Amino acid sequence: MTVGFIGGKFLPLHLGHVYAIIYASAMVDELYIVLSHSKQRDKELCDDTKMNYVPDYIRLRWLSKLTKDMPHVKVIPIEDDYGNDDYDWREGSQLIKKKIGKPIDYVFSSEPSYKDIFAELYPDSKHILIDPNRKHVNISASKIRAEGIFHNWNFIPDIIKPYFVKRVVVVGTESCGKSTLVRNLAKIYNTAYVAEYGRTVYEELGCDGIITEEDYQQIAYGHKMEEIKAIESANKLLFIDTEAIVTQFYSNLYNNEHQTVLDEIAKLQDYDLWIFLEPDVKWVHDGLRKHGTEVERLKNNNHLKTLLDKQNIQYKILKGNYEKRLKGAMELIEDIMKN
Ligand SMILES: NC(=O)c1ccc[n+]([C@@H]2O[C@H](COP(=O)([O-])OP(=O)(O)OC[C@H]3O[C@@H](n4cnc5c(N)ncnc54)[C@H](O)[C@@H]3O)[C@@H](O)[C@H]2O)c1
């Protein structure tokens, strides 16, 4: 039985790593992927780059997801608290040997520069170089950190893309152009969107005045599940029509109920961009909407803003005609895509 390991920081995991892991896995009976991590070192590596630090448990999940159908591959995290300049390779090797707990036949990497250190630390193991010239997948994690994830999107495995997708939520009161803007943005950026789940529920119920307190809770949960599903197929961005605070707004408006559960869901939300649409476009009566007078529209608009302010949401306001809103939204999106 042959045993090998490949170590790395996988910050972030890219298709070059995937190639090396799969190749190594084909050479041994048991492969260990060692996730070597230190919060200090990994944060230092991301400082002044275009990528935010990714916690170890997320990287562990990526590796685990990648290899879940490979029973002879195991992922092991090894933590230390050294920085970039004082990493102790010897101590690291002792921890790796202890965790693997059996003789190691092969140590894999794509780095010719590791030759001497591996010969010293693993004298009984063979150092196997996998694609040292990066001929198969010409990318490195440091290049991705320097240039940004979106710049190197084609080198990011599909299984980890959802982690990096930016979520843009569009909020506003009745007939303010949310759904149209969300659909249009998804078309322009060639990605997925989440429609207002509450609307689907109203349409299924098919008649007026029968929405109950519990329905709003289910709308909020249902909407979140739609987001979780849609992010899997999103391309860099996911556009979302409404969220839990807007659901609270409707619960206030139609049922005169303020629901703590919706506040709690709202607290867990963590969107990258909030776009608030002012209701200054013409009222479109669609059979479900009810508050079309100017006075009602203004009153409701202020109420929704109060709810958002209570949750300390930093929203960007867009107003004016449809062209102005589209341009404004695109400028805001380009801004969040820079990082
Ligand atoms: N103490 C030890 O014995 C020991 C041994 C191995 C690794 N480590 C730890 O892991 C770290 C290794 O870091 P890294 O920056 O080399 O890892 P990394 O996360 O960038 O890469 C992980 C592995 O994939 C290989 N790889 C990267 N890009 C590739 C590509 N395009 N094609 C094919 N293979 C590719 C690398 O050579 C490395 O072997 C070290 O800094 C150390 O912390 C420690």
Automatic annotation (TrEMBL):
Domain NadR/Ttd14 AAA: residue ranges: 167-325
Leading EC class: transferase
Keywords carried by this UniProt record: Kinase, Nucleotide-binding, Nucleotidyltransferase, Transferase
Example GO molecular function: ribosylnicotinamide kinase activity
Keyword Kinase included in the entry's annotation: yes
Single Gene Ontology BP annotation: NAD+ biosynthetic process
One Pfam family it belongs to: AAA_28
EC number from the UniProt entry: 2.7.1.22, 2.7.7.1
Region forming the signal peptide: none
Chain coiled-coil ranges: none
Binding site for NAD(+): 14, 41, 109-111
Record NCBIfam families: cyt_tran_rel, PRK08099.1
Protein's UniProt name: Multifunctional transcriptional regulator/nicotinamide-nucleotide adenylyltransferase/ribosylnicotinamide kinase NadR
Organism: Aquibacillus halophilus
Record lineage: Bacteria, Bacillati, Bacillota, Bacilli, Bacillales
Record gene name: nadR
